[in-house]
Amino acid sequence: MDLDAELALRHEIFSALDQLVAAKGGALTRPELFNFELHGSRLPLVDGQRGIRNPASFSSTLSVMSTPNGPYSDEVVGESLHSYAYTVGDINKGDNRKLRRSVETRLPMIFLQWIDVDGIRYVPIYPVYAIQDDPENRKIIIALDKKLLDVADPLHLSPVEKRYAQRVTEQRLHQPQFRSQVLIAYKKRCAVCRLARPELLEAAHIIADKKLHGSAEIANGLSLCRIHHAAFDTNLIGFSPDLRVHVGATLRAAENEGPILKFALRGLQSAELMVPETEQYRPSPERLAERFEEFRTAQPLTKVANMDVASVESIPWGAE
Ligand SMILES: [Zn+2]
User: Fold this and answer.
1) φ, ψ for residue 291 (rounded to 5)?
2) Please, are residues 254 and 264 in contact by the beta-carbon 8 Å criterion?
3) Residue 205 C-alpha to ligand 1 middle, in angstroms?
4) Is 88 strand, coil or helix?
5) How many A from CA of 226 to the centre of ligand 1?
6) Phi, psi at residue 87, to the nearest 5°?
């Protein structure tokens, strides 16, 4: 297979993977990766045992897998790039030959980010690129974005390049990882309406990530469908620390907007949030309290008469 054909095949793999990843909520089990099919034919995206996948007909590596403590564990380099260690043995043979060849072919690869929430799964990050070979330290450097192929020195990024690389890491790696972890903790359902369509689910931050650095943990997340996520982020609805849904003044005053307003928003007043069974994954009450204050102060009090919290809470489940 020439490199152009291989590039086209890789893009077909990524398109098929898009569908599978969307249907599964962002993360796949090892068997799901192993039994991957393209146009009805099996094309494993991982090896049965190893953390690297080099299909026989491919010029260079298709996927590498992160493991927490294994011999092939990846590490973050320069805050924004990843390294991937060679396998044991000759640096010019077997898996190492194709891994190192990836730097020359510049063909897009798949990086499988390990997560452990009620079992081990992998978040496929793709396309990623091998940008530098480091035979002395037996590793290659992987970038999550094509633009980083052209930096002068991947191990010493300029301040501008570094900021760019950090943003890419946040968007391409940390956000998909956070979303997958939260969705799995909530059994791939919306905490408000129980909708179980991973394609329509997102991971909301209770306290915005910017405010609380390094808080991309499940206890700062909520699995919400797109409607309820957007309603929560814009304070159209709020969640009190006792895990109740509160419908804000704007929605309470609205009329004649059809079934989403009537049933999916106003109808959920006082509904109880569905939270994970595992205690450490449940939303932090302190963060919910802080965020609920923001919801309360954001309510346009002048719009609706008697619009205080007491009147919000007095509306029974399902009332209009
Ligand atoms: Zn929902």
Assistant:
1) -70, -30
2) no
3) 15
4) coil
5) 7
6) -80, 170
Q: Answer for the pair 207, 287: CB distance below 8 angstroms, yes or no.
A: yes
Q: What is the DSSP string of 248-306?
A: -HHHHH--S--HIIIIIIGGGTTPBPP--SSGGGSPPHHHHHHHHHHHHHHS-TTTSTT
Calculate how far, in angstroms, residue 126's C-alpha sits from the geometric centre of ligand 1.
28
Segments of the chain scoring below 70 in pLDDT: 69-80, 210-216, 301-320
Region for 25 from its dihedrals, namely left if φ exceeds 0, alpha if ψ lies in -120 to 50, beta otherwise: left
* Cα of 82 from ligand 1 centre, angstroms: 36
Q: Which domains does the chain have, with CATH numbers?
A: 3-183 (2.30.280), 187-313 (no CATH)
Euclidean distance between CA atoms 139 and 128, whole angstroms: 16
Tens of pLDDT along 295-308?
999 998 654 444 44
Distance between CA 71 and CA 56 in Å, rounded?
23
Task: Report residue 145: phi and psi, to 5°.
Answer: -150, 140
Conformation bin of residue 26: beta by default, left when phi > 0, alpha when psi is -120 to 50 = left
- What is the radius of gyration, based on Cα positions, of the chain? 23
Cα separation, 117 vs 189, whole angstroms = 15
pTM here is 0.88
- Tokens, residue 300: 């346009």
Q: Which two tokens stand for residue 17?
A: 């993977």
Tell me which residue has tokens 């309510």: 299
293 Cα–ligand 1 center, Å = 22
**Tokens (6 digits) for 134:** 């480091």
CA distance 119 to 121: 7
Q: Which amino acid is at 277?
A: E
Residue with tokens 């891994």: 99
Rounded to the nearest whole angstrom, what is the distance from the C-alpha of residue 158 to the centroid of ligand 1? 43
